[in-house]
User: Fold this.
Amino acid sequence: MSCLVCRELEQSLEACHREYIEARASTYYRVTRKFAAEKNVEMERARIALEEHRLICAAAPAPPYIAPARAVPIGISRAAA
Assistant:
């Protein structure tokens, strides 16, 4: 279950992703890549906004637990450890 803001941000991200794919596939992309680059920036902004909201949203599912890597003391390289 996700909150209204999560759903709106997800829809925004999906729309930005579709627009980016269309910009990359168009013949206009062959002329100038600036348009596709702008769409890529918009898509990344939408993705970041969604990720930031999910960090504070109570309705968002918790990210999966990832065990931390083995600690290596400072000054010792991984090869020496």
User: Anything to note?
Assistant: The CA atoms of residues 15 and 63 lie 24 Å apart. Helices lie at 4-25, 27-31, 34-56. Residues 70-74 have pLDDT under 50 and may be disordered. The longest helix spans residues 34-56.
